[in-house]
Amino acid sequence: MHETRRRLAAEREQALARLASLTGDYDSVVAASLDTNADDEHDPEGATIAFERSQIGALVRQVRHHLTEIDAALERLEAGSYGACERCGSAIGDARLEALPAARTCIRCASVRG
Ligand SMILES: [Zn+2]
């Protein structure tokens, strides 16, 4: 249980660091697009900036989603339901939890869904 908490905390740290570096990039990309007052349709540079902005935006959303999954896993840990599959109720398994500490489902249910 202690090991799991440590693992989730480490995962959370990594996600936060990634978010910080992404939003740092994101802010500079947005600032650059404001500076040039770019017209996305006619200025090729403007189109590039818009593309980068949407790419980073998608990554930021992914990392934020991962953070909410980690927080949900920490709540399950507090509640004592961590490690049980949300779909079938069986144990998720140590190997899977080691690779994906925030996993909600066992590998069987995950592969059915995917
Ligand atoms: Zn399952």
Automatic annotation (TrEMBL):
<dbReference type="InterPro" id="IPR000962">
    <property type="entry name" value="Znf_DskA_TraR"/>
</dbReference>
<dbReference type="InterPro" id="IPR020458">
    <property type="entry name" value="Znf_DskA_TraR_CS"/>
</dbReference>
<keyword id="KW-0479">Metal-binding</keyword>
<feature type="domain" description="Zinc finger DksA/TraR C4-type">
    <location>
        <begin position="80"/>
        <end position="111"/>
    </location>
</feature>
<keyword id="KW-0862">Zinc</keyword>
<dbReference type="Pfam" id="PF01258">
    <property type="entry name" value="zf-dskA_traR"/>
</dbReference>
<dbReference type="GO" id="GO:0008270">
    <property type="term" value="F:zinc ion binding"/>
</dbReference>
<dbReference type="InterPro" id="IPR037187">
    <property type="entry name" value="DnaK_N"/>
</dbReference>
<keyword id="KW-0863">Zinc-finger</keyword>
<feature type="zinc finger region" description="dksA C4-type">
    <location>
        <begin position="85"/>
        <end position="109"/>
    </location>
</feature>
<protein>
    <submittedName>
        <fullName>TraR/DksA family transcriptional regulator</fullName>
    </submittedName>
</protein>
